[in-house]
Amino acid sequence: MPNHTTFDYAIIRVVPHEERGEFINVGVILFCRALGYLDARITFDPRRLRALAPDLDEATVHRYLDAIPRLCAGAPEAGALAALPKAERFHWLTSPRSTVVQTSPIHPGFCDDPATMLEHLVKTLVA
N or C: which end of the chain has fewer CB within 10 A? Predict the structure, then answer.
């Protein structure tokens, strides 16, 4: 298995009220250093958010979530953070924070194709 390599991932969560400990899984960020891969997939269902926190501003949540794949891609419109090396972007995106959008702890794994693994993780952990 010449392409079998390690990767790290974190689940992206919307945490409407941190004090309640409730959250909704909405995406995954995956980083594979050996293959130079960093990407994120977001699968956000606003109905789930409204059921958990009807008072939360959906537009703001969408704006925060939309920024994550742009940061992963290094898009210039994503600002100075997008210019950082991929490893630094991944660790910045997955650093612990007390905001509405958070990530799980980082988890390791093995894969042959990080893009396929990212889709698998989104299907099994989010969708």
Answer: N
Query: Taking each helix axis from N to C terminus, what angle separates 58-73 and 86-93, rounded to the nearest 10 degrees?
Result: 160
Query: Tokens in use for 18?
Result: 């941190």
DSSP labels for 70-107? Answer: HHHHT-GGG-GGGGS-HHHHHHHHTS---SSEEEPPPE
> d(Cα 26, Cα 34) in Å, to the nearest integer?
26
Taking the C-alpha atoms of residue 74 and residue 89, their distance in angstroms, rounded to an integer, is: 9
Q: Which residue from 34, 24, 27, 48 is spatially nearest to 3, judged by alpha carbons?
A: 34
Q: 5-40, pLDDT tens digit by residue? A: 999 999 999 999 888 888 999 999 999 999 999 999
Amino acid at 126: V
